[in-house]
Predict the structure.
Amino acid sequence: MAQLEIGICGPAGVRPRKESAPDLILIGLGSAAVLIAFALASRALKAGASTLPPALALAGGLALSAWAIWRIRRREDDAALMEAGGLGFVFLLTMQYGVPKGSAWAFLAALLPLGPAAVFAWSYARLTRRSDELRQRIVQEALAFGFVAALFAALLGVALEAGGAPRLHWAWMAGALVLAAAVGLLRANRRYR
Amino acid sequence: MNNQLRVLRAERDWSQADVAARLGVSRQTVNAIETGRYDPSLPLAFAVAKLFGKLIEEVFEPNATKPS
């Protein structure tokens, strides 16, 4: 079993290895290529020009990111994968692409964050499965706390909405779940420190 | 559950990290067991006893017995 110390670095507390740093940079470059591709596509769609160059840039960016992810996965550095997936998800989710709604590019932009989200979820599950029994207990307690706290937050939101408060965006609920799980992780870590 | 882990470790002049490496767990796990904050699973308790060449009941003992 791997020697893993539990800290507060990331949801599972394990730091990425130094060897994965170049691959994380490659993923960053790939993401930049994706963003440039969307900016070019936005201009091309508005001007009625060909979208082949942005499509090629998009394919190149995605291929570069996928290659770097494959290299990290081969190294079994789940912490680096988790970090790349989490940051990629937040980055792609919050980006404004500017492509016209209803176009294929708009659907691509909407679906794109799911890729890094899947990488994050898969690597987090594998990291937890491979960790020792105390870490699994800590993660279990953190998720249980997160679930209950997020459920309470959802019920609170529904109650406030019934009282006339504006409807909350789903991202707030997802954020509440992540925040609650992080607080649960800190609590459990402190208990077993 | 009480345990003799700290005493046995001190007798061998092992650090918590040494014990953790030999058991294949994190140092935090060894520390949590030593301080009584975490009761190990049966397989890990057996592994601890085997590491120190003791019977499991020589390393771990219950705090208080409940009447049956």
User: Anything to note?
Assistant: Residues 42-51 of chain B form the longest helix (10 residues). The radius of gyration of chain B is 12 Å. Chain B touches chain A through 15 residues (CB under 8 Å).
